[in-house]
Amino acid sequence: MVRPKKPRSPTWRAFLNNHLKDLVSVDFFVVPTVAFKVLYVFIVLAHVRRQIVYFNVTEHPTAQWTAQQISEAFPWEAAPRYLIRDRDQVYGAVFRKRVECMGIEEVLTAPRSPWQNPYAERVIGSIRRECVDNVIVLGELHLRRILGDYFTHYHRWRCHRSLAMDCPEPRLVQGREQGSVVEVPEAGGLYRHYEQRAA
């Protein structure tokens, strides 16, 4: 007897592509200042285009402060379906309640398993290598300005292999007829990008 053919299951890549728009990651990293203070940077990363949706800096992170940040990152019912985070104590009861009220399902990584949140870990590594390791941070306002400049560069000019060498904010391909290639410094020369401009 001939068995009827079952429809093919979707591939893992198709599954990821279908759910990528519903995933965000949150994480903290620390930055020392010139006065030996430790500042905590909170980032929210959307997986779909590797965009840093939101960031903020504080000297004393609490569950209440972190809950407020997640509300500011996703106002007006723009919340994602899933939020990936680690088991840090700063995500306390207030944070968990706020996320639940926003209709977001939390996905917790296993203890001591940073590879389970790879996109956030990767972007934090990029921020360290390309930005904060190259400057001396004077204070909280200075760090906010530095990170703001870096994220502007990151979204508009930094290429990603996973995005087919495009940026998180898609840009048009420039042809030769648009002029010669010029180097454009950003953030006081900390970053540079190249574009074609008419003479």
Would you write up a description of this structure?
- With about 200 residues, the protein is an alpha/beta fold.
- The chain has one domain: Nucleotidyltransferase, domain 5, CATH 3.30.420.10.
- Helix content is about 30%, strand content about 25%.
- It is built from five helices and seven strands, in the order αβββαβαβααββ.
- The chain has helices spanning about 10-20, 65-75, 95-100, 120-130, 140-155; strands at about 25-30, 40-45, 50-60, 80-85, 105-110, 180-185, 190-195.
- The chain has a five-stranded mixed sheet, with helices on both faces.
- α2 (about 65-75) packs parallel to α3.
- The protein is flat, with a radius of gyration of 20 Å.
- About 20% of the residues are buried.
- The model has no long low-confidence stretch (mean pLDDT about 90).
